[in-house]
Amino acid sequence: MEIRKVQLTGSSSYVITLPKEWITSHGIKKNDPLGIIVQPDGTLLITWKTKGKQIHRTKEFYVDDIDDATYLFRLLVSAYINGYSTVIIKSKERIKSFVRECAINFTQTAIGPEIIEETIKSITIKDLLNPAEMPFDKTIKRMYILARTMHEDAITALKKKNKSLAGDIEPRDRDVDRLHWLISRQFNILLKDMTLSERMNITQDEATYLFLMSRLIERIGDHGVKIAKNVPVLIDKKVNAEMIEMIASASNNSLKIFTSAIDAWGNKDIKGANENIESIKNLVSSCEEINNNALNVKGMSSISTGYIAESIRRTGEYSADISELLLNHLVKE
Question: Is 173 inside any structural domain?
Fold first, then answer.
């Protein structure tokens, strides 16, 4: 850390000189404006970025040696999450058809990226979404609604023996994933650009908390899919009504914990968060009872019942984790 002394000019103006290397590297000249941001810990952040423009970063991928579409898709998602505004896919030869299809699939899945230029040997993808236009809290609320309805519909499918409804749940998980990717992207951009924190009216601590929260909701969505995938087995094996009712009751309890966690967050209710953490004990007991009863059933229905009970339990535990995150966050305020 470089130490510089504060000087007094006139009777009331305090002045500090700035490092010449920093000034020249950013092309700052006499009378140019600089931004000063007061940090939560009392320190000052001095920035040359005063116009609120997004930092543009470019990532290039050479795909000549890539023959796996899944691998390429993961690379594109990783670049998106890490905050690159432009991704260029390059090849020494003609772009392979699976590469183009992968790029199209990526732009149709993630929020913001679009293909803006394409040649025989390259594809340019640019993110057109201003991260400041999508508040963290609204994205979290949308994720919650999607994940909750996925679980509710999975249990409804079991009760009404509706395989079609069960099959409709997995595609909705992609919406939860893409919203989590968006929050991850915003979080990473915010870490590199403190002016975004100002524009979004959110501190780094709050952004970290909401990023971790979105990760837990994304996992809850995954467990909704796991439940839905095992529902057709129980329908085919004609599991008895008593078992279905036990599963439905446990799921309802799990979703109550999930909803209470989100309500506590919205109300900044630290006592409610603590009570929600304690409520997980009854859910664990209910899921253990389902597993014990499943041991009396032979074949795949026993295994699927166990998977469903596990996903219901994990949903409740992730919801309790959301409450624990909230409690830790509110204690710091």
Answer: yes
In this structure, are 137 and 187 located in the same domain? yes
Closest CA to 182 of 148, 209, 211, 225: 211
Do residues 198 and 301 share a domain? yes
pLDDT at 137: 93
C-alpha triplet 9, 46, 38: angle, nearest 5°: 90
Compute the average pLDDT of residues 194-209: 83
Pair (18, 124) in one structural domain: no
pLDDT band at 199 (very low <50, low <70, confident <90, very high): confident
Structural domain for 42, as ranges: 7-47
Per the CB < 8 A criterion, the answer to whether 18 and 7 are in contact is no
Burial class (CB in 10 A: 0-12, 13-18, 19+), 198: middle
Rounded CA separation 290/288 (Å): 5
Instruction: Name the nearest CA neighbour of 159 among 293, 256, 224, 249.
Output: 249
Counting the structural domains of the chain, the total is 3
